[in-house]
Request: fold
Amino acid sequence: MTASTSTDAPVLATTATAEKRGKPSLASRLAARAGGGVTQVFLILVALFWLMPTLGLLISSLRDSTDIATSGWWEVFTAPAQLTTGNYSELLSNDAITGSLWTTVLITVPSTVLVVVIGSLAGYAFAWLDFPGRDWWFLLVVGLLVVPVQVALIPVAKLFGTLGIFETTTGVVTFHTAFGLPFAVFLLRNFFAEIPRELLEAARLDGAGEVRLFTRVVMPLGGPAIASLGIFQFLWVWNDMLVALIFADDGAPPITVALQQQVRQFGNNIDVLAPGAFVSMVIPLVVFFAFQRQFVSGVMAGAVK
Reply:
C-alpha cells in the first residue's frame, strides 16, 4: 500500500504540472490574439496611411499644374486622363534641377566611398592590429559619436574659409566624410572583431600579409556590415540640407537646396517641384532596395551566436 502510494505520487505531481502548464496566462492569450487577422489588417491600414503622402506626391508629379491648383490629387481616380508625363519632360529641361541632381551625385558618391574605405581600414586596425594606445584611440572615436553637427558648423566654416574650400563640393564632401567616420569605425570595428581569430591565423600561416588578409578575408566576410554602412551614409548625405545649405556653392547646390530655392523664388511652379521631389526621394529608395538583402544581413549580424 505504501509502495503504491509512493509510486503514484510522481505521476500525480507530473499531471498537476502538465495541467498547470496547459493553462495559458492572460498575457500569452493576448499575445496570441494580437497575431490574428484583425491585427494584420490594422497594420496594413496603418502602412497604407503612412504611404499616402508618397502616393499623393507621385500622382501630383503626373498632373498638370492647372489640375493641381483646382483639385486634389485624389481626383485622378475619377479622371485618370489628368495623368501626364509632361512634368518630367519639363524637369529634364530645367537646368537648375538637373544640375542640382548631378551635384548631389558628386557629393554623395565620394562621401559614401571615402567613409566606407577609410572606416573599413580603421575598423580592421582597431579590431586586429596592436599599436600603442589602441583602446584609448577607439574610446576617442566612440566619444565623437555624441558630437552634434550643429556644434561644428561655425568652426568648420572658418577652417574651410582659411583652406579655400568653403562653398565648394570638396568642402561638403570633406564635412560629410569627417562626421560619418566615427559611426563607420565603431560599426565595422565591432563587426570585424567577431571574425574568428583562427581564420585569420590560418591565413597568416599560408603566407598572407595584412593587406592581402584585409582584402581577401576580412572584406568579403564584412560585406553585410559594409553594405549597411554604405546605405546609411548614402541616405544621410543625399537627404541632407543643413550642411549643403551652409557649405555648398550657391551656384551649384544639391537637390535639397535647389528645391528649397525653387519654392522661395517662384512658389507656384508645382509642375517642377513635384517631380523633382519625387525623383529626389526615389533614388535613395532604389539604392536601399538594391542592397536590402545585405542591409538586413548586416543589421542581424551578431544577433545569433
Remarks:
- The first helix runs from residue 2 to 22.
